[in-house]
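Data card: per-record layout.
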Amino acid sequence: MRYVLNTLYLITLLAAAPWLLWVALRRGKYRRGWGAKLLGRVPRSTGEDEVIWFHAVSAGEVNLLVPLVAAWRVRYPHWTVCISTTTRTGYDLARERFSTLSVFYCPLDFSWAVSAALRRVRPTLLILAELELWPNLIAAARRQRVRVAVVNGRMSDRSLRGYRRLRLGVARMLCSIDVLAVQTEEYRSRFIALGARASAVHVTGSVKFDGAQTDRQNPATRRLATLAGIAPGERVFLAGSTQRGEELAAIETYQRLRTRYPELRLILVPRHPERFPEVAELLDRSGLCWARRSTLPDVPLPVEAVLLVDRVGELGAWWGTAQIAFVGGSLGRRGGQNMIEPAAYGAAVCFGPNTRNFRAVVSALLRCEAAVVIRNRAELERFVERCLVDPAYGQALGARAQQLVGENLGATVKTIDLLGQLPGLVPPQTGRSTVAAA
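The structure for this 438-residue chain is written out next.
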């Protein structure tokens, strides 16, 4: 099976090579980490301690790992922890979030690359975040007697349809996973229907609730609010994790409302850093006064200026400045982004109708009347204006959202407890390993 997969991967990589080269030259993406990606040349683990390898594809999954890694290190302080990611954005954020740990690019799912990486890392346990199911990686881990677990697992309608087409291979892969810690009963049923062992699939809830900050007075948010010159009485409308088209909707909404509501401020946080110049051009064409986050505090922010946050990893703290929040990736086909963070701060949250990646969270928010679905720019404007005209409406939305987050805490502890029940995972009492440079 591995040879078939290797062949398919090679064909795909060769077919995509011109596009990858163009993007690398034009946008600076896909330039780094090829030794790790193609040959498995990741940092070596040395010493005698047990090693746990967490893998997160990009920034969202990296943030998801923060409470899990912290809880694991408290419970198993003598284990060595390393983090891998797939994207440049995820890698840069992981280096920031886990500055004392080994961070590297995960090898592509070629059998030789994943086998080499596993030999160099020597993990006892491999943790895959959400839905990072790579057949060669999982098979190589089993051959090297590495236990494999999926945490915060989810299975969207789209993923379910895709996996059903490959049912036999998927069933074999899922059966070899020791633990699948999933977010909901629905996801548990889907994994089992695809061939996972029922005894291995457990509902733990969403770890993203545990990672969310609820205190608007936290140091990071206070520092950013001061940096942006947000004054008492101002109402911040923040459009975060946005995709193409969503920034324009937020800009036009702000343009139509700012004259009648001078207390309104707009902050834009695009999802992908390579789109920062594109959004900057939109703001230039709008005629609005605006500034980049990266210029602060060197260049003072003009009064009433729109702020473009062109820094990776700050969105979680910026949500704490907002009274009104639009969560992007939801008006197009992306499938939504994390709406738990603004909900935890008690912001009045809205998002588009396409939120398949957060189906369970969205259902809970809507069931509690703690968020609103908007379908276009006109509905976004009506939502923002209602929150401005009737502050009590927005405050009630936010209070219900914050309460929901509080009621769903605890997935991290459940997940760590579940992993700790795997045979042989007893933390060593002495010694500490280190991770050498590749």
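Known properties of this structure: The radius of gyration is 22 Å. The CA atoms of residues 209 and 340 lie 6 Å apart.

See the next section for split statistics.
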